[in-house]
Design goal:
two-stranded antiparallel ribbon; globular
């Protein structure tokens, strides 16, 4: 992405004539009450940026092109603030803690369900608003107690703080998965204290690392976090002046209700709408068509040319309306290439692919053939202490994987190293601050006692520091507007990291996790380094790289024969990095909604700790009561151990990585892919330097393309083309040719569609899909064809 279109270096800075801007720069901020309250002398004349939302202000000619991150965040989101709005209310804590409990418990329960859904920030946002408005309306404001419980209208900062607290809690801690595996397959839990503290530690360690990297991954305007734009749009629409947002709010609720009603069809009554395949309807007896054109069921096919009418699957991992066009086009190149790669590997019978399912993530025995698939019996290769016995592997044989799964491992490994190289070559200036703190002066400061009295740092900025922030053209205008708020000292995040690190290494030793002390140090180093590179990519592009198999592979080579060590190493790397991404995303959400940094820190800290505790309690309850079902192959319609079984299987597979993936082994290209990834971006960068006028060389992101080459190895794929069609319409046609409508409606419509779909999915799961005990499936008919809803040929071995 390009550098922002213009900079503001002083109080009368204005954009050049050729740099059209949708907002104005007001040199006299003191004329605006909302900008002058609480300002220090000498600072109140700093510029304020005001968003225009009226029909006249956002006329077609005034908006111009929305080319940069700054164009987006200052056009779609108001760049102003009212410091008098108070987020510290009883309602905020009550709703925040209530939704934290709801989200943490629900997410952990669904981790052990056959049908998994994810608690989304949009869902929490809509639910929090309904509760907040209800409390503001119905709680009497009589006396001191009444005013404490209901201080007035439900405000935007209360709303944002409650949502951020609940979002931090609504993650299923990967440590609970490892603990459940240890209980079910390795002889029992560690002691309760170790289990509780390792769960909190693994959730907070990423919080501490990402917090210390705010200067690199949060404050610059390039760090956009596109997923936040629909959420902030909804928050503004719900809380702005009703005369200003009346039409937008009405459209939001119309679309919300429309999607709530529509999703009954594909999700329950008419599942054929998940993926309509003309090819499968034309020939229902062709397995090649199933593999290539099918995809309306899990692990069915590539979904080529299928059309989906189910927003739940189209926007399952992020709405195409907010993901940047460059990210979408790069991923689309990888998507089409991945179809050719997967089909080519399977039908050329590479790695005996035809002897196994076209798509599966299980380990298979070498005795399998095209008519009889035999899963690998992992219990036959264990010693009594659950380490792997190499002699028993030689007797049992090395397991096999499907060709599509190997394609995913190869392309994702290449994508990992390609990401590092790509970020170095194209975004070095953006990420170098991640290690700029490593200086001799900072090293000396570690010897000073005052360094460790972090509680004495109040986060106040001097006038000179504020001026430097306002003059920095790389910083987010929303961050500049908040210059008078006390910043959360980085030492607070460092303290959270240090406490988590010490707790983690002690607990892993007490638990006899088999992860050595040096392995935990390596996990910390990997987490810090990868957070910088992959966190920057996630912030800029909206693309989050799935790092779990990479870390399980690295652990396999570092700790051969130790599946438990593999799982805990993955917990403190992959889980820590992912948690860091989400927490940075929510800090950007706080920044866009002008929530003070200290309030954001507090709400996230409370949410993380509270959510981790509830994750652990629910895991213990479920595993103790459903152990027999969780270790069974089939599970039931209510409970399933599929996720923990897969985690255990992968840990074992990577524990014998030298026999499977080393150079000379059957799947050697999985390891060699790392070297390929280092080399792939370089020719494109050279061409970019030689021919800078040809934008294609800088537009292509090889790390995204490589990862999407293996993207279709699992799940339901019938919605992918619909995803790209909608994304290109919003991010290309509307953004380029109808910027007025893009600004007013693109993110709002995306949010309404997400919210209506997710509310319906939540209710449907409990009411009819078996989430509350008994499933009530819709009767079979032409649009609800069991086992193959898209009418592709059904392979009975899939059953």
């Amino acid at each position: 992405m390009e550098r922002p279109g213009f900079a503001r270096h002083d109080t009368d800075a204005v954009p050049r004539e050729d740099e059209k801007t949708p907002y104005s720069v007001d040199a006299d901020a003191s004329s605006k009450d909302s900008m002058s309250k609480g300002r220090e002398v000498g600072v109140q004349d700093l510029p304020a940026y005001h968003y225009h939302d009226s029909e006249a202000a956002i006329g077609e000619g005034e908006i111009g092109n929305l080319d940069t991150a700054e164009d987006i965040v200052t056009t779609v989101i108001h760049v102003d603030d009212d410091p008098s709005i108070n987020p510290w209310t009883f309602r905020m804590f009550f709703i925040g803690l209530g939704l934290s409990a709801f989200g943490a418990v629900l997410q952990e329960i669904f981790y052990f369900k056959p049908q998994v859904i994810y608690v989304s920030v949009m869902f929490l946002t809509v639910l929090a608003h309904a509760i907040g408005e209800g409390m503001a309306h119905f709680i009497p404001r009589w006396g001191v107690v009444g005013r404490f419980l209901n201080p007035g209208p439900w405000n935007s900062k209360e709303h944002a703080a409650a949502v951020i607290m609940a979002s931090a809690a609504s993650q299923s801690a990967l440590s609970t998965e490892a603990l459940a595996v240890q209980k079910l397959f390795y002889g029992g839990y560690p002691n309760v204290a170790a289990g509780v503290f390792i769960t909190m530690s693994s959730q907070l360690i990423g919080f501490g690392i990402s917090g210390m990297l705010r200067k690199t991954l949060l404050w610059p305007v390039k760090m956009l976090y596109p997923a936040n734009l629909p959420i902030t749009t909804v928050l503004e629409t719900l809380h702005r002046d009703k005369s200003e947002t009346k039409k937008r709010l009405r459209v939001f609720w119309i679309i919300f209700v429309a999607l709530f009603c529509w999703e009954w069809l594909p999700e329950y009554i008419f599942p054929l709408l998940i993926g309509v395949s003309i090819f499968c309807l034309a020939d229902q007896h062709n397995l090649v068509f199933t593999n290539l054109f099918g995809g309306a069921q899990g692990n069915e096919g590539m979904g080529l040319f299928s059309i989906s009418f189910d927003w739940n699957y189209i926007a399952g991992f992020g709405s195409p309306l907010w993901l940047p066009l460059q990210t979408q086009l790069n991923s689309m190149i990888g998507y089409f290439g991945g179809i050719a790669l997967s089909i080519g590997l399977y039908y050329s019978n590479t790695w005996r692919s035809k002897d196994f399912p076209f798509m599966s993530q299980l380990l298979f025995d070498g005795s399998s053939n095209s008519t009889n698939w035999v899963t690998y019996n992992q219990t036959t290769i264990f010693n009594s202490d659950f380490t792997v016995n190499n002699d028993l592997i030689d007797t049992q044989g090395v397991p096999y994987l499907t060709g599509t799964y190997i394609a995913y491992l190869i392309t994702s490994n290449a994508g990992l190293t390609a990401t590092i190289v790509h970020m170095f070559l194209w975004n070095y200036q953006d990420i170098k601050l991640g290690w700029a703190w490593i200086t001799l002066d900072n090293a000396k400061s570690l010897l000073k006692p005052s360094t460790y009295t972090f509680w004495k740092n109040n986060g106040r900025r001097s006038p000179a520091e504020k001026q430097r922030i306002l003059e920095d053209p790389t910083l987010d205008p929303h961050y500049k507007v908040m210059v008078d708020y006390e910043e959360t000292p980085s030492s607070w995040y460092a303290a959270a990291f240090a406490a988590s690190w010490i707790t983690g290494i002690v607990c892993l030793y007490v638990m006899k996790s088999t992860l050595p002390w040096w392995g935990f140090i390596m996990a910390t180093i990997f987490t810090c380094v990868f957070t910088i590179f992959f966190g920057a990519q996630y912030a800029i592009t909206g693309f989050g790289f799935n790092l779990q198999p990479i870390f399980q592979m690295l652990a396999g080579y570092m700790f051969p024969g130790r599946p438990l060590a593999n799982m805990y190493f993955t917990t403190y790397t992959y889980s820590g990095i992912q948690q860091g991404w989400y927490l940075l995303r929510d800090l950007k959400l706080a920044q866009q909604n002008k929530l003070s940094p200290k309030c954001a820190f507090m709400t996230q800290m409370v949410g993380c700790i509270f959510g981790a505790l509830l994750n652990y309690v629910m895991m213990i309850t479920i595993v103790d009561n459903q152990a027999a079902i969780l270790v069974s192959v089939e599970g039931t319609s209510i409970w399933s151990g599929a996720n923990i079984q897969q985690f255990n299987t992968l840990a074992i597979a990577w524990s014998i990585a030298p026999k499977m993936f080393s150079v000379g082994a059957r799947y050697q290209w999985v390891t060699l892919a790392y070297l390929i990834g280092f080399a792939v971006p370089v020719p494109f960068y050279i061409m970019h330097r030689l021919r800078p006028q040809q934008a294609i060389w800088s537009y292509l992101n090889l790390s995204i393309i490589l990862w999407y080459l293996g993207y279709l190895f699992v799940g339901i794929n019938s919605s992918i083309l619909s995803y790209y069609a909608i994304g290109i319409f919003g991010q290309f046609y509307l953004r380029k040719y109808r910027p007025k409508y893009f600004v007013k409606w693109n993110y709002l419509v995306s949010a309404a569609m997400d919210g209506g779909t997710q509310v319906l999915l939540f209710l449907l799961t409990f009411a009819l899909a078996g989430g509350s005990g008994t499933a009530h499936p819709f009767p079979s008919w032409g649009g609800n064809h069991q086992n193959n809803v898209d009418y592709c040929m059904y392979n009975p071995l899939n059953g």
